[in-house]
Each structure stands twice: as C-alpha cells, then as structure tokens.
Task: structure prediction
Amino acid sequence: VYLHELLEGSEIYLPEVEKPPRNPELVARLEKIKAKLANEEYKRITRNINCQELNQYGTLADLGRQVRSMKAVVITIFNFIVTVVAAFACTYLGSQYVFTETAARVLSAVIVASVVGLAELYVMVRTVEGELGGL
Result:
C-alpha cells in the first residue's frame, strides 16, 4: 500500500480560529494614537504652507521686496549714467589744456568715458554675479 493511494479521497480539515474579543480600552488607545500620528503627519506636510502666499496679488512683504529691488536697480543705473557723464565732462574740460581743437577734446572725452563706463559695467556684473552666487 502506497501513501498516495491512502490520501487519494481524503480532505484536510482546518478548524476555524476563534479570535478573542478585543479589549475596548486597547481599541480606544489605538484610535487615539492613530489620530495623533495622522495629525502630526498633516502638520509635517503642511508646515511650509502660508495662507497669505496663496493670495493672487501677493502679500505686502512681497511688494516691499520688489520695491526695494527695483529701487536698487534704478539707483545703480542712475549711478552709472552720472559716472559716465562726469568722466566725459571732466575729460572734456581738462583736455583744453592739452588740445586746442574741439574734435580732439571730444574724442579724448569719449574714449575716457567709454573706459570708465566699461569699468563700471565690469564692477556691476561682478557684484550681480556675487549676489546670485550667494543665493
């Protein structure tokens, strides 16, 4: 007699496992802990959300930052123009002792103003590059 012949018509009997009733105090504690964890996760997810930034026009702080940045740009451009014009005027007036002809005075003033303008542009680019690198 072989084993597989004996087991041929048989079935496996598995009794049902009876789960013991849960302790109501334990269930209440687990629900409390789940609610606490869910609240902590919600706070973690939403901690960097600011309701004021959801305004389509922005906040007053954003407006202040934009005005300050625009003010700095306007002052920089004004400073550039004043520097170049002053270099031109000083060279034009100072070259009257060297050159007698007006064309030579204007040419020397344009050359000096161009050099000063390029130097000023170089300094501005390096400053902006340094500010952007710090971000």
Remarks:
- The mean pLDDT is 86.
